[in-house]
Amino acid sequence: MRRAHSGFRERPLLGIELPRRRFLGQSLLGMGALVAPGLIGCSERSAEGKRPKRSNFAKIGPLGPPDANGVRLAEGFSARIVARAGQRPLESSEFLWHGAPDGGATYPAPDGGWIYVSNSESIGTGGASALCFDAEARVTAAYRILEGTNINCAGGPTPWGTWLSCEEHGSGRVHECDPFGKEPAIARPALGAFKHEAAAVDPRHQHVYLTEDESDGRFYRFVPANLTRGGYADLSSGRLEVAVVAEDGSVTWAGVPAPAPEGSATPTRAQVPGSTPFRGGEGVWYHAGVVYFTTKGDNRVWAYHVARSTLGVFYDAATNPDPILTGVDNVTVSVAGDVLVAEDGGDMQIVALLPDGTLRAIAQVTGQEGSEITGPAFSPAGNRLYFSSQRSEVGNGFGSGITYEVTGPFLV
User: Fold this and answer.
1) Average pLDDT over residues 5-26
2) In this structure, are strands 373-378 and 152-157 parallel, antiparallel, or unpaired?
């Protein structure tokens, strides 16, 4: 593929600034050492050559009583509120945190801190915002990174350090955003115009996987026409494909003729006869060769194995003898492959699906039955978990929302 410029200054997720000549000379495979710590498996090594800490999820105990903020956690864990909709995260700034916080991700900062970005699913005033933390986990700044969009639901981080914010309406698009707020967001129409939910990037092949929040939505893959000078996907042009799943779970990908239909054109999900419908696509996340995504209509978590091009059900509430996880929505993955799923409804929990199939409730928000849990994301070190309650006060609708941070022994 031809190299192109992405429109962003490429910023590897570890926050490492390479000398220009060395950076531009990196091959696609060579960039594997620059993925975020949260994407490194327990048997792999970090860019510093140190073996990352291992997951402690299997040893997390039952949830205790609600704390002062109504959050239930296991022993050894604690929660704090880092932002409230319509209020200032920082008294020294006039910036107000957005309503209806949804999908989120974190990014390491050069000073040892990190950034948490969050979408706003508000109607008419969507977009996305960011919270900056220093190395001591103090909030030091807050600002918008996307304006002028509508119903921004979930999205996903990229290996080159940007945020893909997805609009969840019939002609919704994906916007690529700079978490540091230094560069303007860029619309990426090549990724299609449909009711976008979330996006995940395969860092090896530079393919983008996309979910669609329709009762007969599709599972999509974007294959870029070019790579950037750093070996990353150039999202300005490429081929949008839709999954065709056979009875044995094998997947083939068919090109979507009109990725951005206008007016009365046939929607993307109906353009390829024989493409496979999914009952309300929700969160999606790539980890160690597997793309996990959820479908809310049947309470399932799916696993697409990239190398084998096969798709299977990773979790099904209907067949689970103890379905503590229902209302599946946003998803993220721990350093060791624990798949964390946030509930939209259900009993307002974040539930971890461990590699051995065990379920662990990690957190629960109480007293907010009209809400949903959104935006789960670990800090770059993997020892802090961020998430939001989208409609934190019953009756306040999409104008409310609280964003939390949970600390504790996630790792050993």
Assistant:
1) 40
2) unpaired
